[in-house]
Design goal:
Blueprint (H helix, E strand, L loop, with lengths): L1 E7 L5 H11 L6 E7 L11 H9 L16 H4 L2 E4 L2 H8 L5 H5 L1 E3 L21 H25 L1
Parallel strand pairs: 1-2, 1-3, 3-4
Bound molecules: 4-nitrophenyl phosphate (4NP).
4-nitrophenyl phosphate binds next to loops.
Length: 154
């Protein structure tokens, strides 16, 4: 099994969408996709209702997901760790026990725009349109991630 983890701050807005989107593009017999937050405020909660609605509009059901906090054992458990923004990157990399662990962590939009340091913006405090924008960014990035993973592992 190839394991991919999507990480944001709260694990209720961006990374649940990233989890659902990437999962929908990969066969589940070979690829396991999960998500987590660097913070613990929303542990055990469903994704934000705006993320659930945005995903539903695009034909994805993410309502069964439950937020959890990123843990150090995720570095061993997962092959690839995608973070949504620069702040997530520094929070996750700070916890990396060694260089191999650190090398698993990549900024999500770096897949499409290597080295440009583009964040998937946090839509939590904004309006509904922010969630559509996040969905579009993640959909484009996840298409490429899925293509690359399938080339490498299938
Ligand atoms: P996320 O968005 O990191 O995309 O899940 C956020 C959700 C909650 C909070 C911040 C960002 N919060 O401060 O509670």
């Amino acid at each position: 099994m190839v394991k991919v983890l999507m990480v944001c701050l709260g694990n209720i807005c961006r990374s649940p969408l990233a989890e659902g989107i990437l999962q929908s593009k990969l066969p589940s017999d070979t690829f396991f996709v999960d998500s987590a937050g660097t913070g613990d405020w929303h542990v055990g909660q469903q994704p934000d209702k705006r993320s659930i609605a945005t995903a539903k509009n695009r034909g994805l059901d993410i309502s069964c997901q439950k937020a959890r906090q990123f843990r150090i054992s995720d570095f061993e458990e997962f092959d690839h760790i995608y973070v949504m923004d620069a702040s997530n990157y520094s929070n996750v990399v700070k916890l990396a026990p060694n260089e191999d662990a650190k090398a698993k962590v990549r900024l999500m939009m770096d897949v499409l725009y290597p080295g440009e340091g583009i964040d998937v913006p946090d839509p939590y405090f904004g309006g509904d349109e922010g969630f559509d924008r996040v969905y579009d960014m993640l959909d484009e990035a996840c298409t490429l991630v899925a293509e690359n993973l399938k080339k490498e592992h299938l």
